[in-house]
Amino acid sequence: MGGTLVQDEEAIKRIEELIVSDRASTMLVCIQGTREGEPCGEIYNCYLREPVLFNGAGDMVLKLDEMCNWVGAPQSTTDYRFLNREMERQYREDSARHPQVSRDNLVYSIDCIPFQHALKAREVLVVYIKYRQNSSLQGSVRGRITKGEVVSFRSALELMRMVRMIQV
Predict the structure, then answer these.
(1) What's the structural domain count of the chain?
(2) Mapping DSSP to helix (H, G, I), strand (E, B) and coil, where does residue 64 land?
(3) Which of 104, 111, 131, 150 has the most neighbouring CB atoms within 10 Å?
């Protein structure tokens, strides 16, 4: 019972950080469990009306990158490359369909934050994407697993390794 209360307090602390940061490039990652040995869950952003589901560390990183495109921050410094024109066309069609972004609907109230989802999550991380350089992500992550410390990552690959190491 006491462990659950401490975990809930930690989750609430991470959610409050999301409100205070007031940045489009801050994402709340709720890891609900594993599927085939990979972390799965949902990602929340204060500008997106619906969570974005992910299945695996690689999928999570790709979704974080897509979400940055949707909310417009941070800007990518490179264009995407494709193996052929058909793949590029398919990517452009798929990326045109994305969740509704509303900068007018910025979450200012703690009542609008997804507490129930975060409290049910096995791990909650606040991921702040500071840059998108060299076709990768750079930023920091913070959560119960980091014991409240901010841990920086220099690439999407580094973030994937960190997330895959989480035991849920």
Answers:
(1) 1
(2) helix
(3) 131
